[in-house]
Design brief:
The chain is α+β, with helices and mostly antiparallel strands. Helix content is 38%, strand content 22%. It has a five-stranded mixed beta sheet. The longest helix has 16 residues, at 3-18.
Length: 105
Amino acid sequence: MNKREIGDDFEEQVAYDLGMQKTNMSGAKFDNGDLVNKETIVECKVKGKPGFQACGSEVKKVIAQAKKHSKEWLYIQQSTTDSYVVLDYNYFLELWTNSNNGSKS
């Protein structure tokens, strides 16, 4: 399997897991991320090494796309050993609060 096929498979799995649609041509045509819904843009990347890999320019790109479309953003990276999610801290707090019914431990 080549890198593009591995990336496509990862995008399809994340789309299924999140209940989102894949963007045509990975969003290149309309400057969207790999996945999109009414509220969120998601960029998916597969890296060929173990652990989290530096991704500053990739995160900056998805942030710019999200701002352009007034949406939240997620950056999801799969390495050879794990998968990671990077997101805005305030959005994380919103998700955390909603999932914990507003309770803080």
